[in-house]
Amino acid sequence: MYWMLIELLHEHNNSYQFLTIVNKELTASDFGIEVEQLEQLINLMTEIGLIELDENKILSNRRVSDNLLKRKDISEKRRQARSNVNKCEEMLTIHDKEKKRKEDNTKEDLKEKRVKKEKALDAPIGSQASLIPLSQKIKPPKFNFGEEGKVLLTAEEHQKLEAQLGAEKLQSCISLLNDFIGSKKKDPYASHYHAIKKWVIEAVEAKKGNPRVGGGQLKPTAGMVNAIASDFSAQKFLEIGD
Fold this sequence. Notes:
3-stranded antiparallel beta sheet; 242 residues; mainly alpha; single chain
């Protein structure tokens, strides 16, 4: 009977207003006893401290109260755990979305760079400068010319010189510069195209006109003097024997 009463208090949150006529009759009926027997049983349990009956005739029990507090605490911890799990899932979802967004942005950036690079390669030479940053400009390949292949010119540079000088004269210039570079331990020029424009053309023309000074040495022109003034080996190289 005691445990039936404890279960009843659990169902009513440890606060059961027992001493109403309706509750007495319902409780006695549930317990399968008479109302008088139920009253006697309640009085006995109250006297020996198994249950408490306050001034408002509300039944309660310390054990039930402790159990309810434990249940409440467990319920709160479970709720907090579920909340933490939900927060973790939300954070993971946000992290995954951010990661995907960065990956998508990276793909878009790479795609945009690839498209710009392809456009730059397809564009005319004069328009490439506006499409490609200076640090990323693609240098055209240089080809070897001369008997020993020491003269390096791009196809565009060779085409310009040939249009200016003609094929025969250009070949003479390339031959002279090839021999001169071959006489040096190290190639002194960053651009063979500019070297030809600076002094080799004049040197070839001077050789063809054969202006000499005493001793059979080639008489340098003003441009040749300016171009090789600091290079005595070049002066020696330009000597022409009889």
